[in-house]
TrEMBL record:
Protein name (Swiss-Prot/TrEMBL): S17 self-incompatibility ribonuclease
Protein family membership: Belongs to the RNase T2 family.
GO MF: ribonuclease T2 activity; RNA binding
One Pfam family in the UniProt entry: Ribonuclease_T2
Keywords for the protein's UniProt record, in alphabetical order: Disulfide bond, Endonuclease, Hydrolase, Lyase, Nuclease
GO biological process: RNA catabolic process
Listed SUPFAM superfamilies: Ribonuclease Rh-like
Keyword Nucleus attributed: no
CDD domains per the UniProt record, alphabetical: RNase_T2_euk
Length: 161
């Protein structure tokens, strides 16, 4: 999802099973919680995980089957714990920060430029941090497409909730 166009929903007809192994579900729930859903719905219906696999995983199913995709997601989360990275750089929830400070904090660990996505609420609020990888998911690369944390074409401050 880093080059000339977003790689999303590459196989809209794919059958998606979700996380089949109950122990793996518990492990994934700790690393990648489904915050918009109750714990029971998240674990049983798996709307977030299935949705992310459909959106992104179907674009790499020649390298990873669905179950391997979930394993990769957990491994990458363990490798780059964004909450810990931000905290270690003095970036804590409930405050606003210059976009560059957030980018630099992540870059201290990944050594590459992340993509930050924001939503308007009423200013800009950080909603997603993207770390880009080469296709096999081993090496971090700089994200080439811009994020959405700009107001009037300029980087300003963003709320980190």
């Amino acid at each position: 999802d880093n080059w000339s166009k977003p790689l999303q929903n590459c196989d809209p007809l794919a059958t998606i099973d979700g996380v089949l192994d109950i122990e793996k579900r518990s492990q994934l729930d700790v690393r990648w919680p489904q915050l918009k859903h109750s714990k029971d719905d998240g674990m049983n219906l798996q709307p977030l995980w299935k949705g992310e696999y459909k959106k992104h995983g179907t674009c790499c199913n020649n390298m990873y089957n669905e179950q391997a995709y979930y394993d990769l997601a957990m491994n990458l989360k363990d490798r780059f714990d964004l909450l810990k990275i931000l905290s270690s750089q003095g970036i804590t929830p409930g405050k606003s920060y210059i976009v560059q400070k957030v980018q630099d904090a992540i870059r201290t660990v990944t050594h590459q430029l992340p993509r930050l996505k924001c939503v308007e609420y009423p200013g800009l609020e950080l909603s997603e941090i993207v770390i880009c990888f080469e296709p096999k998911g081993k090496n971090v690369v700089s994200c080439r497409r811009p994020g959405t944390c700009f107001k009037n074409g300029k980087m300003g401050t963003i709320l980190y909730r």
